[in-house]
Amino acid sequence: MYTSAKTVILSFFLLVSTVFTAAASERILIAYFTWADNTEIIDRDKAISDANGHVWSMERGNVVDTTTTASVLPPGNTPRLASWIQDRTGGDLFSIRVVDQYSCYWDEILERASQEKNRRARPELKEGVSNIDDYDVVFLGFPNWWYTIPMAEATYVETH
Predict the structure, then answer these.
(1) Strand 92-96, strand 137-141: pairing
(2) Rounded to an integer, what distance in angstroms lies between the CA atom of residue 55 and that of residue 160?
(3) Per the count of CB atoms within 10 A, which of 31, 54, 58, 133 is most buried?
(4) Which residues neighbour 45 within 8 Å (Cβ) at sequence distance 6 or greater?
(5) Which stretches of the chain score pLDDT less than 50?
């Protein structure tokens, strides 16, 4: 698990207000997990409606546009922030993707995320980074996933 790399692991949410400047000689990896890269949209309108409906009920009537937040539709906030970091550091991007894709519907994904968290599951990943030891700095990005990191992110950290 990142044994030979100097590793900086930061949530992207902390990076929004931080400017990171890497030395030119450092190799940087930006690995991130996002719902949009881990689902197949079956019914776009229903997926948006489900997510907006849930957020609306949570915010007491203040609808949040889930098409532009950390959402089922690409790109979502996490990939945007990953690109922001890449623009400033020249790092390599890597999207963490699971073998068994998540539902595109809000209630179903919340249920699965809750079950994975409670079981401390480690979902199988489609691929990893074979040359992880070549990187000096690794940024990990993820959305709030049932009030913690996505379990796929834990799989990634434990296998690298």
Answers:
(1) unpaired
(2) 34
(3) 31
(4) none
(5) 1-20, 22, 56-59, 68-70
